[in-house]
Amino acid sequence: KLFFTDYGNAAKVERCDMDGMNRTWIVDSKIEQPTALALDLVNKYVYWVDIYLDSVEVVDYQGRRRHTIMKGKQVRHLCGLAVFENYLYTLNSDNLSVLRINRFNSTDVQSLARLANAKEIRVYQKRAQTAVRSHACEVDPYGMPGGCSHICLLSSNYKARTCRCRTGFILGSDGRSCK
């Protein structure tokens, strides 16, 4: 799945399949300007920062069990969000600091470092990486991902795929080759 935020005409947090199909709103109320998003892949939670409502919130992948992690003016300058173990990591654009927020006890907030110029944060740790299994977009014997001549996108599950073409090409009737 692909998770993303939108704060156009109607602010929301959404998810869809990697090929863009099955687009679903998971948060569409009491939300104004969601700017940063992070996933807890183990427990299947979606965290986001709403800089208009000054809040950090969480829901499960289906949009249930919503609750506020942190609220207040200190949230207004947060950008970027990552989750690892019991903590959320974010950047404060006002004082250029990296913050660590306990996601179960929001009074436990620590400034870890200062950076000259950053807008995003990621956690790279072996335990945070999911195991890769065989999937529909693996390269076939002819070197084509998922048998697609240009682009292979995973669909509703790891066994299904959708072929797409680069700009200026159209997908052939076989659903795999581009012309």
From TrEMBL:
<feature type="repeat" description="LDL-receptor class B">
    <location>
        <begin position="44"/>
        <end position="87"/>
    </location>
</feature>
<dbReference type="Pfam" id="PF14670">
    <property type="entry name" value="FXa_inhibition"/>
</dbReference>
<dbReference type="GO" id="GO:0042813">
    <property type="term" value="F:Wnt receptor activity"/>
</dbReference>
<dbReference type="InterPro" id="IPR000033">
    <property type="entry name" value="LDLR_classB_rpt"/>
</dbReference>
<feature type="repeat" description="LDL-receptor class B">
    <location>
        <begin position="1"/>
        <end position="43"/>
    </location>
</feature>
<dbReference type="GO" id="GO:0005886">
    <property type="term" value="C:plasma membrane"/>
</dbReference>
<dbReference type="InterPro" id="IPR011042">
    <property type="entry name" value="6-blade_b-propeller_TolB-like"/>
</dbReference>
<protein>
    <submittedName>
        <fullName>LRP1B protein</fullName>
    </submittedName>
</protein>
<dbReference type="GO" id="GO:0060070">
    <property type="term" value="P:canonical Wnt signaling pathway"/>
</dbReference>
<dbReference type="GO" id="GO:0017147">
    <property type="term" value="F:Wnt-protein binding"/>
</dbReference>
<dbReference type="InterPro" id="IPR050778">
    <property type="entry name" value="Cueball_EGF_LRP_Nidogen"/>
</dbReference>
<dbReference type="Pfam" id="PF00058">
    <property type="entry name" value="Ldl_recept_b"/>
</dbReference>
